[in-house]
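Forwarding these from the shared drive since the link keeps breaking.
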Amino acid sequence: MSDGPVKSRFAGTDPRRTAIQLIIASVLVGAFLAFWGISPAEFWRGIFDFLRGILGWLGDSVGEILMNLLTYLLFGAAIVVPVWLISRALGGGSGRR
């Protein structure tokens, strides 16, 4: 029994349960970040800097290549993911699983 395409595209079998889980996880993570005085931008910058450090440790040429690939991935994802989400929300997906 299917309640619609949006349910299966975004929320799996029970969208209310998924929404509640996302809300609870968001509140917990937000409280943790606020407690430690970290903004989401600082969090992601820290992750990015951590990865840059690991790649630098691997060696300049390999690290530079991987860093460029990661940068291209993030730049592309900033466009591709929202467009994909909008197309899924508007019914552009195949709906087959």
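-- next protein --
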Amino acid sequence: MITTATNAVSPLSAVISYQLLAFFPSLNDQASIKTDTPTVRKEFACLHTLVIILNLSSLISLPLLPRQKKETREREEEGSMGKKGGRGLL
């Protein structure tokens, strides 16, 4: 389950991190990163922390996933409602 959540959110986190890079001008080019100043380190730490938080927030969606393959197949075949009253997988 954790691997599934990680694989699902990795592409999204990459896109979001590129969008967040606009808020950290010191990280926009390799020359400023090579200077390794405290400002660059601070901005990189902030960006990295935000990306980690976004990755961890994907764990909130775990209860929405079916528990096993068997349950998933049964729900697909029946088109049944979920336990919380949501629609089936179809």
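The first helix runs from residue 2 to 20. Helices lie at 2-20, 30-35, 38-57, 69-78.

- D.
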